[in-house]
Design goal:
The protein has 375 residues and is of the alpha/beta class. It has two domains: 3-209, Rossmann fold; 226-339, Homeodomain-like (Arc Repressor Mutant, subunit A, Orthogonal Bundle). Helix content is 47%, strand content 13%. Helix 6 links the parallel strand 10 and strand 11. Helix 2 runs parallel beside helix 7 (185-198) and helix 2 packs across helix 8.
Length: 375
């Protein structure tokens, strides 16, 4: 496939001509491609827009691919993508995503920062795909905001940019800032935006076309290797963490863990205090509570089932520990994020696409059911 043919696919606002424009107006997305950007992350974002137009038979979205100098930009897989326009021609889109990949520090420049700052002054929503969020961070445009970025970059960036609230989630939406971790996570982010604006039925139908089993929300955590997550390579501690993470339901005793890694209980205590500044017991409890929160927010499991799955002996003990950790009870947590599920309904992030369509089949794509989340 030639660079031009790749470009044509990237720019096409739908494989079939939509019948009419959306009554809510057409949202214009700009995608600034930086050298060695991630092709899978870039195409994942655009494909959701294309499919939304195709399914709805309306022009809900249009998009432009932007490069610094108007020349084709090579992705990390070597394929060049031809741009629609240069920075100077880009104008003011509704949303601008910076698309990054490997060697992101070498890919950004003062010209990029100036362009992003100009758009920020014009109240354009700014976002980053994969490591593209780094451009926003480096430009100072993510200070005080939540920011999702690929897990390989998290540890270093947290040290370098303490004013940014880095997230381990797949994506983050914080006021007028959008960011996602990379890989196929842009699909989840764009489906979330589509659901907010046009309703869950459309986002579920898009997912069905992509053969996705479920729509993941922003609470879904990136799978981060233990060593990268902990920030060091002490093999005994990594093994302890691995044992704890793989024994959530059937928990191990402190004595069993020490024996399995060949350390005394005193050595284990000192190691946790030195590297993590917590006790092993507290670390284990936090792991179980974080898993419990994921299950509450991402599945339809009952609170009692979550209690058992996370190794708690009673719902009373679980509820007390959960409230101490997160400031609210398990039932309040579920109601806050998924009131429909808390009332006995279904969870968008946990049920099948078919179930979402069935539950939402009476909804229409109108301004009435989306304006509340439009901003």
């Amino acid at each position: 496939m030639s660079p031009q043919s790749v470009s044509t696919i990237a720019h096409q606002p739908g494989t079939a001509q939509p019948d009419e424009a959306s009554p809510l107006g057409v949202t214009h997305f700009g995608f600034l491609t930086l050298p060695n950007f991630s092709m899978i992350a870039f195409s994942s974002a655009i494909e959701v827009l294309r499919m939304a137009n195709y399914i709805s038979r309306q022009t809900l979205y249009r998009w432009s691919v932007i490069s610094l100098d108007g020349q084709p930009v090579p992705a990390s897989n070597g394929l060049p993508i031809s741009p629609t326009m240069t920075l100077e021609q880009a104008g003011i889109p509704d949303v601008l995503f910076v698309c990054g990949g490997v060697n992101i520090r070498e890919a950004v420049s003062p010209k990029v920062f100036e362009f992003l700052a100009k758009l920020a002054r014009s109240n354009v929503k700014l976002g980053g795909i994969c490591t593209g969020s780094y451009a926003l961070v480096k430009a100072g445009l993510m200070n005080g905001y939540q920011c999702a970025i690929h897990w390989e970059n998290l540890s270093a960036l947290r040290e370098e940019f303490p004013k940014v609230q880095f997230s381990e989630g797949l994506f983050a939406i914080d006021r007028d800032r959008l960011s996602c971790s990379g890989g196929t996570a842009p699909i989840d982010l764009m489906l979330h935006l589509t659901a907010n604006r046009y309703g869950r039925t459309l986002s579920a139908e898009i997912s069905e076309q992509f053969i996705l089993e479920r729509i993941r929300d922003s609470n879904y955590q990136q799978h981060i290797p233990i060593a990268a997550r902990l920030g060091f390579s002490r093999k005994e501690l990594i093994e302890v963490a691995r044992l704890m993470e793989t024994h959530i339901e059937e928990t191990l005793s402190f004595d069993e863990i020490a024996r399995l890694v060949g350390l005394s209980q005193r050595q284990l205590q000192r190691m946790f205090k030195y590297y993590l500044d917590v006790t092993p017991t507290h670390y284990y409890l936090q792991l179980r509570l974080r898993r419990a929160r994921e299950l509450l927010l991402q599945t339809t499991m009952s609170i009692m089932s979550v209690t058992v799955a996370c190794g708690f002996q009673s719902s009373c003990h679980f509820s007390k520990a959960y409230r101490n950790q997160f400031g609210r009870s398990p039932s309040s947590e579920r109601h806050l994020h998924h009131p429909f599920l808390a009332a006995g309904g279904l969870s968008l992030s946990a049920i099948s696409v078919e179930e979402v369509i069935t539950a939402d089949s009476a909804a229409n794509i109108t301004a009435d059911n989306v304006d509340a989340d439009r901003q």
